[in-house]
Write a structure and sequence with these properties.
The chain is of the alpha/beta class. The protein is built from 21 helices and 31 strands. Helix 2 crosses helix 12 and helix 20 crosses helix 21.
C-alpha cells in the first residue's frame, strides 16, 4: 500500500503548507485521494516529526521530482471550507514582503489563535421542547408521582415558544425528569448552539437614522456612490469634532448591507470599541447577530464565535481595532477607518504593520469603498489628498450647530504654586471646575501619564530609582505602594532611604494620574470622581462600565490618559482641562508636534457637544509651541501647512519612507559591534537615494534587560529598504544572543 500510494501521489497535486509555529517553515505534502476540498487558504493537519501539526495551505503545486515517492500525505482538512480567502492570502504575502516579516506572522494575524489552535468548539446547550400537552387527568397523575416533571411541563406551557434551556428548568437536576417526559412523548430534548457574545446580556434598543445636514448629505452621497460602483479610491473625511461623522458611518453601513455587502469598521483602540459597538448594535438591532466585535480583550470563546459568525456571513458588520482588519467579512463592500490619524493603528511588535495602510490595500484588492475619517487627519493622508491619491471630503460644522469650544492656553511658568494642589491645577482651572460642579455639569481632565509620581529622587546626591532592566526611571504607584517600570512592568519595593547615600530625604518628583486624583479629592471632596488609565481598566468591561456611568451622570469629573481623548460623546461635558500639554512635545520623534496637536484637538472636542457651550483650558510650559497655538484655534489646515513645510525641508514623512533598524543583546558591546558591522555591509549595498544615519544607542538605550543600538533609513521607497536590509540581516546569521529587527514606516523612534 505504501508504494501504491506514493506512486499515485506523484500524479496528483501537492499542497505547500505553512506549518504553524515553525518560523516560516514551508513543507510540501501529497493530497491523498478523496481529499478534494484542499485549496489555497485551507487549514490542514499534517504529519511532522512523529506527531500532528496544523498549517495553512499557501498554494497547490505538482510534486517535485526529487521527492520521488516519499511525499507524505496530508492527514485531514481542519475546516471543510478555506479559512483564509484568496484576498487575505494575497494581503498576507504582500505585507510579508513590504514589512520584511515571515509570512507565517501575517497568517497568525489573519487566523486568531483560538481558531488556529482549535482550542474551542462551538458551545451548545440542551433545550427542552414541549411537544404534547397532557390532559388534566394525565397531568394530575404526573403531578402526584413526579412533581418535578409536572412543574417542567407547566413551565414550558407558559413560555411563548414552548421551549426552555435545561438551565432554566433546574440545570443538571432537570435532565432525568426531562428524559422521562421524553419517553412519555410530552417533551423533546434538543441541543442548540450558544453564541458567546462579548456584549453579554446587554440589550440595545433600536435607533432610527438621524436627519443629516447639508455637509453630511454630500459626504454620504460620495460614499454611497463609491460603494455601489466598487470604487476603492480612498476617501479622506476631515470633519471637526462633533460634526456627525458617526451618523454618516451608520447610514453608509446600512446602505451597504441593503445592497448585500459586508462592512468593516476599524477603531484605533479597544477603549472606543464599546461605544462604537453600542451605536451599531442599536442601529441594526432588528438584524439579530449582524454586528460582530473582534479585539484582544475578549475571551477565546467569544473570539472563536464572533470570528466564525463573520466567516459564515451571519454577521455582516465587523468592528474592532487594528487586528480586526483581517476579519473574514463576506462580500466586503465598505471599509471605514475611524480616527485614521491614530498611532495605535501601527503595531509596535512584529509584524509591525500599519492597519490603516493595509486597510487601503485590502479595499483595492476586494474592490470595496474605503472611508478614512478624522478631525485631525494624519499628514500622510492629507498629503495623499493634496496630490490626488485620496479624495478629500470635509465637514467643517458641528452637526448640532454648536460652536467649537473656546480654548484658553495658560502659561504655567507664571502660575504661583498652591500648597493645596502642588502646582497641578492652575487657579483658573480650579475655579472653572468649581463653577461646573456648582452648575451640575461634567468635567474631563487629561494627563497622559499614569501612576502617582514620575520618579523617586534623592535631593542630596541626585540618585534616581531606575528599572533594573531598562534605562528608565521607575514610576511610583500609590495604590500598590510600589515602583513600577512602565516599559517592562518590573516592580520594586519603595526604599525607605536613598540606596546611594542613605539619606532619608528621598522625594517623589513629578506627578501622574494617581497623584492628580488625590489632589482633586482634596480640592473637591463632594465631587464624584473616576480615574481612567491602564491601571484601573484591567478588569474586563471596566472601561465600558466607567464610561457608561459618566454618560448616565453618575460621575462629575472624569480624569484619564489619552484613552478618554478621542471619539467619545458626552453631551453634558462643558469643561475639558489639559493638565500638562508638554508631555509629548520634547521627545526625539519627527511626529512629536503632530501627535501633540492631534491629542489636544481631539480632547478639546469632547467639550460643548450638547446644548451648552464648551470651554477648554490647556496648561503648558511651552505656550509658544506651534502645535499648542494651532490646537487653540482648532486650525488643522494651518497646522498641516506649517508642519508639512518643515517635513519637506528636512525630508521627513510623508515626503520619504523611514525605517528603524534595532540590534539588541544582553551584552552592550555585542549589540554595538553587531550593528556597526551590519551598518558597514549595508553602506556598500544600499543605493545612493537611501540616507542612513550612524549607528548609535537607542533613545531608550536599555529595555527588558537588553542593550539597544539603532540606525535609521530614509528612502523614496520602503521596498528598497526592506529588501536589502532584511537580506543582509539574514546573511549575518546572528547568534541567539543578538536580535535584529527592522521597522518599516516606523512610528516609534525610542
Amino acid at each position: 500500500m505504501q508504494g501504491l500510494f506514493a506512486e499515485e501521489s506523484l500524479s496528483c497535486r501537492a499542497a505547500r503548507v505553512l506549518v504553524d509555529g515553525l518560523n516560516d517553515m514551508v513543507l510540501d505534502y501529497a493530497i491523498p485521494p478523496g481529499m478534494d476540498g484542499v485549496t489555497r487558504g485551507s487549514r490542514v493537519e499534517v504529519p511532522l516529526r512523529g506527531r500532528g501539526a496544523t498549517g495553512t495551505v499557501l498554494c497547490l503545486v505538482p510534486p517535485e521530482a526529487q521527492w520521488g515517492g516519499s511525499l507524505r500525505p496530508l492527514r485531514r482538512l481542519v475546516n471543510e471550507e478555506p479559512v483564509v480567502s484568496p484576498v487575505l492570502m494575497d494581503l498576507a504575502e504582500w505585507a510579508s514582503r513590504y514589512y520584511a516579516v515571515p509570512v507565517e506572522q501575517m497568517i497568525r494575524c489573519i487566523v486568531p489563535e483560538p481558531v488556529r489552535q482549535e482550542r474551542h468548539e462551538e458551545k451548545t446547550r440542551k433545550i427542552a421542547v414541549l411537544t404534547n400537552w397532557p390532559d388534566d387527568d394525565k397531568l394530575n397523575k404526573i403531578n402526584s408521582r413526579a412533581p418535578r416533571q409536572a412543574h417542567i411541563l407547566r413551565y414550558l406551557h407558559r413560555t411563548t415558544e414552548k421551549r426552555a434551556p435545561l438551565a432554566d428548568l433546574g440545570g443538571t437536576a432537570a435532565l432525568n425528569p426531562c428524559r422521562a417526559l421524553e419517553k412519555q412523548g410530552f417533551v423533546r430534548i434538543e441541543e442548540e448552539n450558544v453564541h458567546r457574545d462579548p456584549a453579554g446580556e446587554e440589550t440595545f434598543a433600536q435607533s432610527e437614522p438621524l436627519q443629516l445636514n447639508d455637509e453630511q448629505e454630500l459626504v454620504l452621497k460620495a460614499v454611497l456612490t463609491a460603494t455601489d460602483a466598487g470604487d476603492s479610491k480612498p476617501m479622506l473625511l476631515q470633519g471637526v469634532t462633533g460634526s456627525g461623522k458617526t451618523e454618516v458611518y451608520l447610514q453608509a453601513a446600512q446602505h451597504a448591507m441593503e445592497q448585500g455587502k459586508g462592512v468593516l469598521i476599524l477603531v484605533p483602540e479597544i477603549s472606543l470599541t464599546p461605544q462604537t459597538m453600542a451605536r451599531f448594535k442599536s442601529r441594526f438591532a432588528e438584524h439579530q447577530g449582524s454586528v460582530a466585535i473582534l479585539h484582544s480583550a475578549m475571551s477565546d470563546g467569544e473570539r472563536f464565535d464572533e470570528w466564525h459568525s463573520i466567516r459564515r456571513g451571519k454577521a455582516r458588520i465587523a468592528i474592532g481595532p487594528r487586528s480586526a482588519l483581517f476579519a473574514p467579512v463576506q462580500n466586503l463592500g465598505l471599509i471605514i477607518v475611524d480616527e485614521e490619524h491614530d498611532g495605535s493603528y501601527k503595531q509596535e511588535n512584529s509584524p509591525r504593520y500599519h492597519g490603516r495602510d493595509l486597510a487601503v490595500l485590502r479595499a483595492r484588492m476586494e474592490g470595496a469603498a474605503i472611508l478614512l475619517g478624522s478631525a485631525t487627519p494624519s499628514l500622510e493622508s492629507l498629503q495623499n489628498a493634496r496630490i490626488g491619491k485620496y479624495t478629500l471630503l470635509r465637514m467643517d460644522k458641528r452637526a448640532d450647530g454648536q460652536h467649537l469650544p473656546l480654548t484658553r492656553v495658560l502659561d504655567m511658568r507664571t502660575e504661583a504654586k498652591d500648597k493645596r494642589n502642588l502646582g497641578i491645577l492652575s487657579e483658573r482651572l480650579r475655579m472653572a471646575i468649581e463653577d461646573r460642579l456648582r452648575k451640575q455639569q461634567q468635567v474631563i481632565l487629561l494627563l497622559n501619564r499614569r501612576g502617582f509620581a514620575r520618579a523617586l529622587q534623592c535631593p542630596d546626591c541626585g540618585h534616581v530609582a531606575h528599572c533594573e532592566h531598562c534605562a528608565l526611571p521607575m514610576t511610583y504607584h500609590a495604590t500598590e505602594n510600589r515602583l513600577v517600570c512602565h516599559l517592562c512592568g518590573f516592580r520594586a519595593v519603595v526604599p525607605l532611604c536613598c540606596p546611594e547615600c542613605s539619606s532619608n530625604n528621598i522625594l517623589l518628583e513629578g506627578y501622574g494620574t494617581q497623584k492628580v486624583e488625590a489632589v482633586l479629592r482634596r480640592c473637591f471632596p463632594q465631587a464624584r470622581l473616576q480615574r481612567v488609565d491602564a491601571d484601573v481598566t484591567t478588569r474586563k468591561n471596566a472601561l465600558r462600565d466607567i464610561l457608561n456611568d459618566f454618560r448616565a451622570g453618575k460621575t462629575d469629573i472624569l480624569l484619564g490618559t489619552q484613552m478618554i481623548a478621542k471619539g467619545l460623546d458626552f453631551p453634558r461635558v462643558t469643561l475639558v482641562g489639559v493638565l500638562n500639554a508638554d508631555l509629548g512635545l520634547n521627545i526625539p520623534d519627527p511626529r512629536a508636534a503632530e501627535r501633540t496637536f492631534q491629542l489636544l484637538t481631539q480632547v478639546a472636542g469632547r467639550a460643548g457637544r450638547g446644548e451648552l457651550d464648551g470651554e477648554v483650558i490647556v496648561q503648558t510650559y511651552s505656550p509658544q509651541s506651534c502645535a499648542i497655538q494651532f490646537a487653540r484655534r482648532h486650525d488643522t489646515d494651518g497646522f498641516a501647512e506649517n508642519e508639512l513645510g518643515l517635513r519637506r525641508q528636512f525630508d521627513f514623512p510623508p515626503f520619504c519612507h523611514m525605517a528603524v533598524l534595532t540590534v539588541r543583546s544582553p551584552q552592550e558591546e555585542m549589540a554595538r559591534f553587531s550593528l556597526e558591522t551590519l551598518h558597514k555591509r549595508l553602506m556598500s549595498k544600499l543605493p545612493p537615494q537611501v540616507q542612513v544615519s550612524d549607528p548609535l544607542p537607542a533613545p531608550i538605550a536599555r529595555a527588558y534587560g537588553q542593550f539597544r543600538y539603532q540606525c535609521t533609513f530614509k528612502a523614496p521607497s520602503a521596498r528598497i529598504i526592506a529588501d536589502i536590509v532584511s537580506a543582509e540581516i539574514a546573511a549575518m546569521q546572528f547568534g541567539d544572543e543578538i536580535i535584529a529587527t527592522l521597522d518599516i514606516d516606523a512610528y516609534s523612534f525610542m
